[in-house]
Amino acid sequence: MRRRLGKLELSYEYTTRLMSFARRRQTTQLREAEQALRELEGLVAEIRTDRAKWEGVVSTNVVREGYYLGRDLESFREHVEKLRAAALEKQSLMVLDEGWRFRLDPDDVGVEREWFAPGLDDCDWEPIAVGRSWEDQGYEGYDGFAWYRMRFDLKPEWIDRGAVLSFGAVDGEAWIYLDGAQIAHHEGWDTPFTAPLSSVEPGERVLAVRVWDGSKQGGIWKPVTVAIPSE
Ligand SMILES: [Ca+2]
Predict the structure, then answer these.
(1) Residue 33 Cα to ligand 1 middle (Å)
(2) Amino acid 231: pLDDT
(3) Are 218 and 172 contacting, i.e. CB atoms less than 8 angstroms apart?
(4) How much distance in Å is there from the Cα of 143 to the middle of ligand 1?
(5) Which protein residues have a CB closer than 5 Å to ligand 1 (ion)?
(6) 67 C-alpha to center of ligand 1: Å?
(7) Which of 158, 140, 138, 141 is nearest to 203 (CA)?
(8) What would the 3-class secondary structure string for the chain be?
């Protein structure tokens, strides 16, 4: 009897959490959507891992990839991704998409040789585009360290407005240097991140990015912008 009551309570909890998600699934507010996504991810993860608890309340089919809640989770993740991209776009002051140069670093000597240094002569480095993997640009099958460099004019009003460098995603780990100083480090091949500009003087600055990638595609595969952070 008590067990059945427990399951009934759990059914009620399940319905409540589902409705709470359903109310927000169409939202265009980024923060609300991110909150709803975290809650849905939590629910799906719980049902996937704690079978004993959810037995008799929801079937595993509900959270399988491509089915019911599993499918909702995937499409909602895409929705949140689009909202994130739109928020960045709206606040983007400049897209850093020109003048990038690239060099492979298979022996990991770049840090020791200071490939981040603003005065380094990089004219023999290869031109490359960001927003696409290096595999797509002639470096098929390369896994390991590689470096990107570019110059841009950092305007004083950007610093006054609290602008940051915004990276859509770097596959897989990135170290960001501006004018020779490391200003950020990020792990996670598909997540956006920012690097602060507050400690940097305006003027022409050299941006260098050391990337490590261990498998499949690699590099700065999403855009880099100067942007006003949303938080
Ligand atoms: Ca990769």
Answers:
(1) 27
(2) 54
(3) yes
(4) 8
(5) 171-172, 213, 216, 218
(6) 27
(7) 158
(8) CHHHHHHHHHHHHHHHHHHHHHHHCCCCCHHHHHHHHHHHHHHHHHHHHCHHHHCCCCCHHHHCCCCHHHHHHHHHHHHHHHHHHHHHHHHEEEECCCCCEEEECCCCCCCCCCCCCCCCCCCCCEECCCCCCCHHHCCCCCCEEEEEEEEEEECHHHHHCCCEEEECCEECEEEEEECCEEEEEEECCCCCEEEECCCCCCEEEEEEEEEEECCCCCEECCCEEEECCCC
pTM of the model: 0.66
**Separation between Cα atoms, residue 147 and residue 77, nearest integer Å:** 31
Convert the pLDDT of each residue in 181-221 to its tens digit. Answer: 999 999 999 989 999 998 888 999 999 999 999 999 999 99
Q: What's the chain's Rg over C-alpha atoms? A: 22
**Residue written as token pair 């170290």:** 175
Total Cβ atoms within 10 A of residue 88: 21
